[in-house]
Amino acid sequence: MAAAHTLPEAVRSAADRACGALGGNFAAVSVWERELGRLRVLANVGALAPGEREFPENECYPVNEFPEITEFLHEQWARGGEPHAWVEVAEPPGAGPGADPCAGSYGAYCHQRVNALRRRGRSSCVVAPIVLRGRAWGELYVARAVGEPLFDRGDADFATVLAAVTAAGIAQTERLEEARRLAFTDPLTGLGNRRAVDIRLDEALEAHRSDGTVVSLVVCDLNGLKTVNDTLGHAVGDRLLERFGTVLSLCGAMLPGALAARLGGDEFCLLEVGPSADEVVRVADELCRRASELEIGEGVACGVASTGDPIGPVRSARRLFRLADAAQYRAKAARSEKPVVAGRDGGPDDPVVRLADAPPQAPPAERRRFRGRPAPPGQGP
After folding, report:
1. What angle do CA 231, 236, 241 make, to 5 degrees?
2. How far apart are CA 8 and CA 170, in angstroms?
3. Pairwise CA distance, residues 327 & 300, whole Å
4. How sure is the predictor about 136, in pLDDT bands with cuts at 50, 70 and 90?
5. Is this prediction's pTM over 0.70?
6. What is the SS3 assignment for 153?
């Protein structure tokens, strides 16, 4: 479970190892979705019955059919006990013809479990509650086929321990997923952040070098954010950033697999891998149009750089960023309502390409600092 990157991978690993440890031929992990009143199966492993899938899309059971997970267990905990696994069988040992398979020591809540065992050709199962942060999170379920030895109390004790280990693994997976989300997400807009872009861009350029995959970068700078902050307040400025983030996400969805991100401050970007440069430019044009229609702000300055255009060799993420940023600088300086595209006005001799290739110069102190951007020729300190 520790090696898993997602919750489905983690619970599948738990089900697989628990199945082997308990000598079962089938195992599943389910989560109790309280708000929907159901147990939803996350993963099945082993000998799957007809209709069962390893990662089912919608295998759910109303909890009122399995009240032990919601009622019986909580009653036990309320009396100071500890959650414990239990065993259910399709045919209790020694039961005569016509006997109630749910009578006696197997508990009063096993009818649906027994029906499921019989329907799927299984002789017995052990069910262990998975408890997370003091609450029933779900269950670990392991079954044996007809003809195999029935589970007993010792198996239930062992399953209780395995469920506790599973709970610890789930908690760790959830913490890691949250840490990953925070590490690669801008907290204000919910878009990706610079770290997410850097990692994706490095991978994309590796693909470009190996098979010529087209990689495109759209860099945007919101116009008028400082004016909004100064005149209407930072709360309104934040709303502008969030609103543009939504527009960027919507436009990015027009391209398969595009990553929409906020680089910091009022700078945003779209990273596309695969679509042609013309497709990307069309989306960038739509982005500019929609940004100009926002109720606040002054639109957006947008620059595009794509390996599908004549911009010269792109051997590093830094070069593609410098090209897109230089195009965006040109768009801002010209107050262009459309994106400026590197390489489309003279290829390698394009003014944008020359600007990107110029040595960086520190801007005057009174000017806003553009991270990683060269100053225009003749305007250095």
Report:
1. 120
2. 10
3. 13
4. confident
5. no
6. helix
